[in-house]
Predict the structure of Cullin.
Amino acid sequence: MISGRGGSGARGARIRPPRRIARPNAPAEGADFDACWELLREALRDIHNKNCSRLSFEELYRAAYKIVLMKKGDELYNRVTKFEEEWFAENVIPKIEQLVTRSLVNIGEDRSAATSANERRQTGEKFLKGLRDTWDDHNMSMNMTADILMYLDRGFTQADPNRVSIFATTIALFRDHILQSKLDATSDRSVVDILISVILDQIEMEREGDVIDRTLIRSCSRMLSCLFQNQLENESEKLYLVLFEPKFIEASEAYYEAECEHLLRQADASSWLRHTEKRLGEETDRCGTTIELETLPKVHQTIDNYLIKSHLDEFLALDVTGLRWMIDNDKFNDLSILYRLVSRIDENKTALKNIVQRRVMELGHEIEKALKGIDFSMGLAEGEEGGEGEKKPLNPAAQQTAAAIKWVDDVLRLKDKFDAILKECFQEDLVLQAAVSKSFTEFINVFGRCTEYVSLFIDENLKRGIRGKTEAEVDVVLEKAIVLIRYLQDRDLFQTYYQRHLARRLLHNKSESHDVEKQIISRMKQELGQQFTSKFEGMFRDLVTSSELTTGYRDHMNVAGEGEKTIDLNISVLTTNYWPAEVMGRSAQIGAESRVTCTYPREVSRLQASFEQFYLSSRNGRKLTWIGTTGSADVKCVFPAVPGKSGALAKERRYEINVPTFGMVVLLLFNDLEDGGSLSFEEIQAKTSISTTDLMRTLTAIAVAPKSRVLAKEPLTKSIKPGDKFTFNNSFLSKTVRIKAPLINAVSKVEDSTERKTTEDKANQTRAHVVDAAIVRIMKSRKELSHAQLVSEVLNVLVGRFKPDVSLIKKRIEDLITREYLERPDEDGAPSTYRYVA
């Protein structure tokens, strides 16, 4: 019995003991060639007719063996080949011709002339099944033929390296006599052309939504993969790759090009995205189940070129459904698909990156524009009983601060939005992350007050924003603050504002938590370096030192026993270089009055002298300057009964009022006046030597503020002006015993245009020195540099502090040349070269 090799083409044989069946024509041993061939020819016919149950493998093998030994292997080889050719002509080709109808031919020539899709599918499937069955029969027969002619290959074929095996020769006859045969003399289309047309038509029907026989088409594609263009059987010359795949890719290109045009006319980017991803999945499935998997990269490349790349910019730019609409409406699914599709065609995601960058800039500028149209005149009352949620009018300074907080909150919400898009949709792609960060940096720094607003945002959170929050929530606030700082280019200006706001929080006990303050400073140090935070850390060290000094001084006074203490002193000794000039009483404007000068009452002066003696006893070379602008004092006031009044005013009233230090100085003046006596603004200033600005703020706190109006003012206006008169307010009445007068200068507010210009002028002066130092350090190291190289290195060195203008760098270079730190060489050809002068 003969066992075939199956459709895979793997050669193998199994020999069973021959059955002794008498055959009338069986030749005896030693018979001649014709007898052996006749036995083999009959066996081949039985194999094709599937009537091989009585065939003896041993007998047939011996017949082929004898022929080879007769040195007639070449004649056997040729006769087997001729037999197969004749078999095709007589038994196979007529069946194939019956399968080829006019409608089948029209599928490839003219689709419009073809019949309905259902009829096309049925006709095509009938043709494919007939061809597949013919191939399966031939493949099985040639496997069994090769088994009985095994010795022909071993003794004859393998003797010549250029001769192919009998199996390869006979299996290739299917290619030559079936697939490449012309149906008639007038047609130039072969069977394989019709086969490919039918397969492509079936695939296109499936793309249109019809159901096809995938297994049938897979059998036909495997047939083409098993056959080669010639007898050399190179893998790259399989009929599948040479004939079918190019036409499949060409048809796919035409189909997807037309489909993309149709989708573009629909103007729905969301549908385009989902349809394209669906097509990619379909082609993956088709290559795995219908045709060959090796075609997958090429058909995917076709989709990339025709469905994605060709009209990508038009789809992204669509007004209603394009990329801007997806971003604005948080279409995360669409954005995820878009990222995957764009990543297929461009590793830099240029089209996606450009639109995302542009949209970030647009939304950032919209935040600034929207801020100008918001009315901040009404805000939520804070710190008042029953005032939660109640809107109350805000003064201009508070309105500007509210606008600053609103701007930063909106920027952070925009940052959260794009962070979510980057994480959920763009797989945290580094290229897109860098693009988004660049856009945030640009639009934030275009806004002139960004440094001040970021500092105010941090100030607001550290005063009230973190109240009641958990440690994790506080950590989120700190991280947002660092993110904002990271985007700032003028970090020296931010440093100036943060120093002012931190000083107010610390000196007026406005900070919610010193631990949180130190945490954010530590994060700034990690991000921006130790030099950036050195002053902030020095301010905290001053507070620790001051607490120790206060405790030491109190212990010293208790030991000295200098009578009864009438004043309890709490001192903050501040290092001049760590604290902002405004806090230390140094005027920011040239020609302005000194804010340090003040004539203190005798009781306070004695206490100051006592503390100075204690402080300087253990510290040589130090000088203390008393600053009253930022301190406060608790003053016990006794208000006598008012004659003719009833209720609380008819009784003596005692209150403890917390006022600014200068407020204490002013109030003590009224102890020396007779009842009903008054002092004018000029008289108060003459007695106290307080600057005009500070005196106005002080009198506002104790003569205008409704809850601490200890002094009565004439005329009754809400502003303090020279010429106003002040008397002790005997009719003052309060529901609480302890009263806190507002610290007019303790609130962090947005600078007005004058203050802003002053800050920028001071920053520019400082920047000039910083640029000078950077230039000198670079030139000292490099000795000689061209102008372009020097400017580039200066920009790189200072990028962490601020972004200097090139004109400023050029100006500082000229100044250093004038001051003989640098020189221009006299050599010809080096007009823009600088040399360091040792």
The longest helix spans residues 117-148.
